[in-house]
Amino acid sequence: MKRFLAMLLAVCMLLSLVTLAVADDTVNLLVWVGDDLDQDWINGVIENFKAANPDTTFDIKVGIVSEANSAATAMTDITAAADVYSIADDRLGDLVTAGALQPISLNTEDIIARNTTGSVAAATVDGTLYAYPATADNGYFMFYSKAYFTEEDVLTLDKMMEVAAANGKTVTMDWSSGWYLYSFFQGAGLEMTLSDDNTTNICNWNATDTPITGVQVVEAMLAIAANPGFINLTDSEFTTGIKDGSVIAGVNGTWNATVAQDAWGDDYAATKLPTYTVAGEQVQMASFSGYKLVGVNAYSANVGWAMMFADYMTNEESQLSRFLLRNQGPSNLAAGASEEVQASPAIAALAAQSAYATTQRVGSNYWTPSSTLGTIIYGGNADGTDLQTLLDNLVAGVTAPVN
Amino acid sequence: MDEIKTTVRRSAWDRFKAFLYLVGEFFAEFCRDIRDGDVWVRLSLLVFGAGYFARKQYVKGLLVTAFQAFVFIFYPTVLWPYLSKFGTLGTVKRAAVFNPVTMKNEVNDYDHSFMILLFGLIAILVIVAMLVFWVKNLRAVRRLQVLAESGKKVNTFADDIREMLNKKFYITLLALPSLGVTLFTIVPLLVMLCVAFTNYDQTHMVPTSLFTWVGFANFKTLFTHSQTITFGYSFGKVITWTLIWAVFATSTNFIFGILLAMFINNKKTLWKGLWRTLFVVAIAVPQFVSLLLVRNFFANTGIVNTICANIGLTGFLKQIGLVSQGSAYIPFLTDPVWAKVMIILINMWVGIPYLMLIATGILMNIPQDILESARIDGANALQSFRKITMPYILFVTGPYLVSSFTANINNFNVIYLLTNDVFVTKDQMLANSNAQEVDLLITWLYRLTQNYYNYKMASVLGILIFIISAAFTVFAFRKLIQGDREERFQ
Question: Does residue B26 fall inside a structural domain?
């Protein structure tokens, strides 16, 4: 029912767009940015863009759809999505499969040259650039309070949990999200990535012939779950925990940097993820290196100008002002090299973690099964299911063909 | 018992025969009209308005012919392109090339599977409607001929209009609602029905990709249980919980709502108004606000858990084994069993006040003379409750009970708002088909469409929900509500 209405609406909107386009030369663009707080920044960018293109009349409107939801919103009806919108890089594959994104064909070489290799790789599918890298800060790292930890302590998770437990506090991470769960398995050398068809996953977390087996990783995680110095908290619980003082360190991202900074003041610090003990060895925790990208709607009536705007919105100047106003780390090489950016602890931590980070290439069947596995492990595997069976089930679900 | 069954069966068979007879009669009449009609009537088969012109009903003749012309022009130009592709749902995929000179995409003339499905379906409906109109129109002009030949008065257009406002006013009144229901309920319903037989999903998203017919493959998937396809397993689990939930949600609210109303209505209860107001306040707060608040209260790190931990309840529950040893909190909304119990309890809290209001009204309406005579005959309070009050309440609220059971099967709000983002399933089989222990069919359907764009499986679920709800409603209304119960209170 809704789809039917949406289709009718879409048709009406398209028709009105067509008539409008015939009626006058004004270029109408709708831009979705991720947060209400981005308004000042994007309005500045729009003014600069207009000033840079004085020969054309623009009517650029701004909408707020968070990077986490924009892909889902766009895919509900891609013809009705914004002309230009911010997305998290993990949804790029789905959007490309749905045909929602315009392959970038203006100024492509410059865009590839001016951004970090990782961010360009994150915006590329099958050798085609589908989006503009906008930030390089969407990954995760370790926050900690210097009041409790020394720089030595934060090298291993074992030591961190020991310190936390001794103080009656906790170190946290969100195991109910496959996004964080990846850290342990990837770190141990197991594989989870997207196959060539861009929708199904490849996953060997149940491997028994690797140097570290999947079962050994799960055993290591069960030990962490049982440690009194560790707690599994979701993103919003993380902020609550930091504010009420029960959490003194945790794995999270730049979006919560200000919360930690406000709560801990001068004790606020950030670093790469620690190592954890698996099969008696110390193994560095891996991570997803997250990027925010800006995509252009393939169904936009002004697809050329939409590309020009997205290009402008992600250039050095715009990324630097985004960092200054919103504290979001640039993917632009020149902006990233600037003094201001170099001085930020969160950005430095991300840079340190980047050696152990991989680009997120994940199909939609990964999320629910991995989230379930994390929850089972944190619950101490209460049913006593054979660990290999747990992993076999996970791999069956994760690698199942989409639908 | 057997006798009743045969009567039901016979009457159903009779009805079917009667229906066949009607269909036969419809066509027989059509043939008779052609046989007996004059040349104008027969000409109406080609030009719909001919028969009206012959009887001097020019405006009507013009309107009908204009309508015919509109459909005959509209059909081949607008609907036929869709209908002609209905069999394949389109073959030409979208291809766009960016033209740097015009700064626009140059797009081929591609097929849009969903539009083809939608308008193809409308095209079929229009054909059926036109056929019926064609036959009915012939009937009408034949009647006019009979009227004219027997010398009776033939209505002028003004007469017809007047009739529409007087004798046939119901037609005028119902025209718009019926059109609305057809366009916005029946057509989308049929579209949904069709989607269940296609492969419309994340890898076949319109308008970029095409989808096509796959027969009963999706229904087969729903009942398949392998390691990669776990829909069969999930469906069994979800439907079981859906039915358990519907029974508990309906019965608990019903029983406790009536009990509450009776306590408040009791002669010995003081400040009746105060109590009623107190419970009605629970209704005044929008349901979704209360549910979201309660979800936060009962979160693993929520206020209720903090209190429970402080007063030692968490520890006690651990000792008696209701909460696992390693857990620092009571998993109110995160453990399947706890969550199910909590959902039913919280639903009681939001639902009982409604039932209390309804029951209060009914209790006040129980004929006092019946209760009075029962008391004189020596019945005690319990007896008159069992023999008079309860049957009366059941009789009056019967339809409400049936409809609330069906509503609870589809009670999206309570389940979704309480468990979304909070509950994560620990059953990997469920996870593989994106279901959860606490899911109703309707919330599962929602997740499949909103998060996984799995429209085909969602449509299959939608059809099953419809069948379950419809079957139950028909059964319940026929068995529970009809019968001799009406007479009992006369």
Answer: no
**Cross-chain residue pair B98–A304, CB shorter than 8 Å:** yes
Q: For B152, which DSSP code?
A: P
What is the full DSSP assignment across B78-95?
IIHHHHTTTTTT--PPP-
Q: Tell me whether A402 touches chain B (CB under 8 Å).
A: yes
Which residues lie below 8 Å from residue B401, measured CB to CB, with a gap of 6+? B250, B254, B394
B377 and B461 assigned to the same domain: yes
Residue whose tokens read 């050095």: A316
- How many CB atoms sit inside 10 A of residue B370's CB? 15
The answer to whether the Cβ–Cβ distance between B324 and A379 falls below 8 Å is yes
Q: Please tell me whether residues B175 and B274 are part of one structural domain.
A: no
Neighbours of A297 (CB within 10 A): 25
Chain B residues 76-95 with CB within 8 Å of chain A: 94
Reported as a single tens digit per residue, the pLDDT across A69-84 is 899 899 888 999 999 9
> b/e map of B373-411 (b: 16 or more CB within 10 Å)?
ebeeeebeeeebeeebbeebbeebbbeebbebbbebbbb
Of A103, A301, A372, the CB nearest to B431: A372
Whether residues B431 and A397 touch (CB distance < 8 A) is answered with yes
Annotation: CATH topology of A2-136+291-344: D-Maltodextrin-Binding Protein; domain 2 (3.40.190)
Conformational region of residue B324, where left means phi above 0, alpha means psi within -120 to 50, and beta covers everything else: beta
Alpha-carbon gap: B396 to the closest alpha carbon of chain A (Å): 34
Q: What's the rounded Cα separation, in Å, for the pair B121 and B127? A: 10
User: What is the least distance, in Å, from the CA of A396 to any CA of chain B?
Assistant: 5
pTM of the model: 0.83
Of B118, B424, B432, the CB nearest to A4: B118
Query: Cβ contact (<8 Å) for A72 and B103?
Result: no
pLDDT tens for residues A133-182? Answer: 999 988 899 999 999 999 999 999 999 999 999 999 999 999 989 999 99
Which residue in B has a C-alpha nearest to residue A73's C-alpha?
B450
Alpha-carbon distances, residue A323 vs A143, A192, A269, A318, A341 (angstroms): 19, 32, 19, 9, 7
Q: Do domains A2-136+291-344 and A141-289+363-399 have the same CATH topology?
A: yes
The answer to whether residues A128 and A248 touch, using CB atoms and an 8 Å cutoff, is no
| Min Cα separation A368/chain B (Å) | 6
